[in-house]
Amino acid sequence: MRHFAIVGSGPAGFYTAEALAKAFGERARIDIIDRYPVPYGLIRFGVAPDHQSLKAVSKRYDKVAETEGVRFVGNVAVGSDVLVDELIQLYDAVVLATGAPNDRKLGIPGEDLPGVVGSAAFVGWYNGHPDFADLDPPLDGTHVAVVGNGNVALDCARILAKTAHEFEGSDIVGHALAALEKAATRTITILGRRGPHQIAMTPKELGELGHLEAASPVVDAADFPPLEADESLEPGHRKSIAILREFAATPPGSTKPKRMVFDFFAKPLWIEGDGKAETIIVERTELDPDGRAVGTGETYAVPASLVISAIGYSTPPMPGVPYDERHGHFLNDHGQIADRLYCVGWARRGPTGTIGTNRPDGYEVAEQIAAAMPVGSGAGKPGGAGLDSLLAERVIQSTSFDDWRTIEKAEEAQARPSSPREKFVHADDWMKVLGRTR
Ligand code: NAP
Description:
Layout: E1 2-7, H1 11-24, E2 28-33, H2 42-45, H3 52-55, H4 58-65, E3 70-73, H5 84-90, E4 93-96, E5 102-103, E6 116-118, H6 119-126, E7 143-147, H7 151-161, H8 174-182, E8 187-191, H9 203-207, E9 215-218, H10 235-249, E10 258-263, E11 266-272, E12 279-287, E13 293-303, E14 306-309, E15 313-314, E16 323-324, E17 329-330, E18 336-338, E19 341-343, H11 346-349, H12 358-372, H13 384-393, H14 401-413, H15 427-433
Parallel strand pairs: 1-2, 1-4, 2-3, 4-19, 6-14, 7-8, 7-14, 8-10, 9-10
Antiparallel strand pairs: 5-15, 11-12, 12-13, 16-17, 18-19
NADP nicotinamide-adenine-dinucleotide phosphate is lined by residues 51, 106, 147-153, 155, 193-194, 198, 200, 202, 205, 268, 310-313, 351-354.
């Protein structure tokens, strides 16, 4: 028998479990460990609540969790409750699938003012992440700025722009829905330090902005290179640029109350305000021959009482695990960190790609593990039984997949009409449903 621990129950963790279960069959015992009592990581806490079709991938993960030999072990924080070194003693191999939940910093003055939040915090707030349930972002101002030109910036802008009616069918948490309904937001400025051709937004997500009930996108045609320049772009990206060009060609004068203004070639310099964010000062940029943004010296002020920086994420370091500071993920060679220690997903390669990109990652690492542990070899590790003893010694109450099913039912039972669930947003509430305390 081979015993595997996967740390993190988001997409990367589940695809790795699926791959290990396939590679080792009945010879595998796989524990998927998560710091939260509930599974799915990014699917639950990151994917936008109005993108339920993307969240449906969790059904596939359910099948993995219910596979013979696979366990979900929730409510166990690896790095504090249990150390990676301890897991290595207990299991034949340990795979870190801890994602990239930390916001990258803008690194500009004023970033710590109240009213400046990272996208992980803002997304966590509307998605019911326990760390951000009490974020209470200031929504009483008319102007919001979102820094970044990726899909997360689009998610944040879209959520700010939608009406309560447009959230029907979503699982946005009640506190966020109530706050957004009362919000005074009228202008959402999406700041890109480079131009339209350099966006990291995908067509489907960009296209949604053209169909919002109460908001219209505003794009300046003068920001684009000549149309012929689009021909050299990869087809998917060309589609995104075509959508932006359509937005730019739409005559102004929309009667919709909210505007989503794409401000390209605008590099944030600092954020200022009287004890809280009021204005973000940006510098007009142009592209150098290598496509990098270079300041022109021209600066201007963009009003914003809420500034959301959506400029990428990093993986939190873990005690005793080599870390690549520059790229913000674990130091690894094709997923291998050290003997019997691996990483997958964003913890391996940084926060890029779609949910599906994690699948080949997981399968590749599972293949490496299988190659290192041929049939017949075996170290006789204690695996899950050893972990359970350690947790019992430390009085840590883990949660099982059945426990999650109990929580899931309770979340479904308290859902608003038309919503699939109303999530519990405080860590204690999950345990209360199970009749336990942490
Ligand atoms: P991203 O795609 O890497 O975009 C980050 C953006 O931040 C880029 O536009 C980047 O501009 C900008 N940026 C970085 N540092 C900056 C700075 N100091 N000042 C100003 N701008 C800065 O990251 P993301 O949006 O966080 O998305 C992460 C991954 O999740 C992506 O692969 C994304 O596609 C995926 N995702 C997908 C969906 C979906 O499919 N619906 C939804 C959300 C996220 P430069 O290009 O100039 O560096």
